[in-house]
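Lab meeting, action items carried over

1. Structure of the two-component assembly. Owner: GW. Status: complete.
Input record:
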Amino acid sequence: MAGSRRAREGAAALTAADFDALVREHQRRIYRVLLAMTRDPDAADTLTQECFLRAYQKRAGFRGDSSVTTWLTRIAINLALDHRRNRRNGFWRRLFSITPPETDSGEPAALDVADGRASPERELLAREQVDLVRAAVDALSAQQRAVFTLRFVEEMSLEEVAGAMGLEVGTVKAHLFRAVSAVRRKLRG
Amino acid sequence: MSEDEKQFEAAWQAVEPAVNALAAEGRREAERPEEFWRAQRAAIRERLEEQERMGAQPLMRWAAALATLTLCAVLLPQPVAPPVISAERDPDHELLLGVERTMRRSVPRSLQAAEFLAAELNQAAQMQEKQN
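Predicted assembly:
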């Protein structure tokens, strides 16, 4: 109780100077969530900025019921959902952006799926599987995708995901089940 | 464990390595050099300061807008009423009145002297008849 009051008072009393420290602490996580949601580095950067600006504007309304991380993630998810709704051509962009990330040398990054023996065949198989998972995730609804990202990329607990999404834990579980089932179907071919 | 949870567990075991690989790839994709984060913080700070400035200025903006409107109202040329030309000063009207007066008169102006002379002669003749 006292902690949540402190958090509420802390957020409401934030000055622009204090806010810089908060941005420094959370910007990487928020950017990561937004990049996973939008798959567009420029949009993720812009939306990250927008997320912190909104948080600053609404700092007085922060009730302290959740952690600052959950609060910021919720703002970020809402921005990502709005962004997705506003982009009618998002499908085509996503369709053409399904490419593996490149390393500094310009080669696709190695994957963690390989079990230590990094044979070219194994890496290729892993690459294909990751691409299939990505395609399955891209085909999910925006909300399912958000749940999937928060749970597996951000490794948030079910309760944290529910808090960030404004959903019941049971609903989060249902979204996860559908998402995992969709990925499994895709992997089975 | 419920039936649903068993199904989820089975599905999860089948996809876990690939999902974990995708998650790791997502985290790698989001890695940026320190310069990127510094620039992002600077951009946020700049936009925040701009918002603060804009937030402090609405009263000033309203006052400026009101002053501009007042100034415009004062400086705008007032509508000028068309000049009223009185009938007496209207040369056309005066000419018309002159013609009218002339037309009402039974004798043209050029014969006024003769008319006067005739009247005098008549009057003299009538007086002479009375005396006789």
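2. GW to write a short summary for the group page. Key points so far: Chain A has nine helices and no strands. Chain A touches chain B at residues 16, 19-20, 23-24, 27-28, 31-32, 35-36, 44-45, 48-49, 52-53, 56-57, 100-101, 109, 111-113, 126, 129-130, 132-134, 137, 149, 152-153, 155, 173, 176-177, 180-181, 183-184, 187 (CB under 8 Å).
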